[in-house]
Specification:
The complex is a heterodimer of chains A (245) and B (221).
Chain A: E1 3-14, E2 17-28, E3 32-36, H1 43-50, E4 58-63, E5 66-67, H2 75-81, E6 82-85, H3 97-107, H4 113-126, H5 142-154, E7 160-164, H6 172-187, E8 191-195, H7 199-205, E9 208-213, E10 216-222, H8 223-228, H9 233-241
Parallel strand pairs in A: 3-8, 3-9, 6-7, 7-8
Antiparallel strand pairs in A: 1-2, 1-4, 4-5, 9-10
Helix pairs in contact in A: 3-4, 3-5, 4-5, 5-6
Chain B: H1 2-13, H2 15-47, H3 52-67, H4 70-84, H5 89-114, H6 118-126, H7 131-161, H8 173-183, H9 187-218
Helix pairs in contact in B: 1-9, 2-3, 2-5, 2-7, 2-8, 3-5, 4-5, 5-7, 6-7, 7-9, 8-9
Classes of the chains: A alpha/beta (245), B mainly alpha (221).
Amino acid sequence: MKEMIRLEGLVKSFGELQVLRGIDLTVEESEVVCLIGASGSGKSTLLRCLNFLEESSGGKIHIEGRQIDPKTDDLNKIREKVGMVFQHFNLFPHMTVLENVIEAPVRVKKVPKEQAVREAKALLDKVGLAEKADVYPGKLSGGQKQRVAIARALAMKPDIMLFDEATSALDPELVEEVLRTMRELAEEGMTMVVVTHEMNFAREVADTIVFLHGGSIIEKAPAEQFFTNPQAPETQNFLQTTVLR
Amino acid sequence: MTGIAHFFETFADSGGMLTRAMLLTLELAVVSILLGIVVGLLFALLKLSGWKSVAWISDVYIYLVRGTPLIVQIFILYFGLSGLFLIPDFWAASLALALHNGAYIAEIFRGSIQSIDKGQMEGATSLGMNRSLAMRRIILPQAFRRALPPLGNQFIIGLKDSSLAAFISMNELFNVATTLGSNNFDEMTYLLIVAVYYLILVGVLTLLVRAVERRMAVSER
């Protein structure tokens, strides 16, 4: 198995506040890892450290076998390999759906425009939004926006996909269409790190569950084992108070 | 009745001279506003650059411009520049007006850039776009739309401020109108006429800005 991400003693502080207290974690190729935990446990911060939207305060980050030094490495090159989907979509409102998807391939990777358009249309078709190519994001529902955001991230042909509470801002009836797209992606063998509150999704799709509490990994286990036989008291407490949906 | 008839008669008679003066006013306004946009954008980006010393330059510039009357700035630039090297009156006036407008436009741009949700920069960054590419392709187009209403307002102010170029003897609207007024011992009529000219210019400009705003808003729906 190829190692895609390896964290050693990752620390992140905002001023006095230590949000991540020494995280060790390895993610292998095609593995789906779900990060769960109460809000404030550091799971989103951890995810954002993985594509350097947050600069870590200490520890080591290896991406695809290479240790990354934010001071000397070109982080934008790494971000091309690590796609990210946000809670609030962050689509570009002044561009059509198609323009959103081709923007980075054309401008960053210098893919010829016709090729980028062809690939973008295939991706939009894959997320079920081929007919929305020429629409502006403002016209889309939340679920459609998030599927466009997924297509936009995939257009860069990343090796790893990060999902930061991708369904948390959606109306309940729109959650499933986004989860379906994520499930398909997992089945195709994409390496994924997913911050989520969707326990059913985590149980069903994740290979590994990582439970964070107070900036530390309390428990890391295969999904089924995690939900049926949680070890740490914090995990048991969290699972009891979280409605399984 | 004779008063009104006199007004329209004078309006028609002075039409040729005042139209020529109006064109100069327009030239001054357009050049100084376009230059002002360039200057304003530059100083807005300096202020948002994240480098303290560079942002400080921008702060000082904005303070100097906002802290002194435009007429003083025009005189300093006009007499200062023409003392240093040969510069046509038109460019001395345009430059002074541009630097003046630029300070206000810098603040307009700074505000509109900062009003763009930070998720936009994060979204662009997560796709491998560097800061300047994200600025150019993602942030500025949205910020510019948001800046349009206050920019339109600044354009109107800039147009009217160009009348101060009269004091360095540019033959723009205000100068020509007051000269005609005193030559004909009929100041009030010419002042009313020149007011109408300004009202027409501002009216056209208002419609123009509104049309651009509408077009840009449509493309987002």
